[in-house]
Design brief:
5 strands; rod-shaped; 15% strand; alpha+beta; 4 helices
Length: 231
Amino acid sequence: MKYSLSLRRAVLLAVAGASLHGAAARAQESASSAPVVGTRPAMNALTSQPDPSAQQAASGAAGAGDVSELMQMIHDSKLVELRTTYNGSYGASLFFYPQEMTYYVALFQDRHFWRVIKSQDDVRAEAIYAGFVKQTVQLADIEIHRTELQAQKAFLDRVIALSEDRAKRLQADLDVARTQQAQVNDHQRAVQGEAVTLRAEKERAQAQLRELQRQVQQLQRQTEAGLPGTR
């Protein structure tokens, strides 16, 4: 069997990277929840798409499908992961089985394999992988948009909460100012009333003083009547 130069290069890269991939795969955590946007689950944590009808059909088939075969080979660490792309919770992977010079192209969502294509043609496998990657971009658009909308709503909720708190503080300050202003107005009216009263009392006192001064001068003249005048 003859292989292209790019295939031979892929084989060399695959064999060289097999040990590194095995260590990386073992180091990755195997969580049961779906990956958050931007995270990457371990490949051995992926499962088949949980479709009861598909599982029933697979169990009744004569042989295992490509999905089951891929899962088993990943479990047995027989594959080299050449490429993997994530968009939201969707992903596409290109695996290589050096022993049989076979490529496996997988499409998955969350932690479930969706489609698996098996081929010994490296050009075809790369083309399928590129198509799957493009499909993940399209599928993840609404998911990414939802994530952005959730972040925007959460941000607006925080801004609204801060604005409401600010409004309450300003209202409290305004209530204090109005109460104080009312007290100031009452004080001003009281002082003004006292001023009017004092002004009237002052005028009466001045009038009384002038009358007393007039009486003193009159009595003085009477007392000094017939006496020589002062030079």
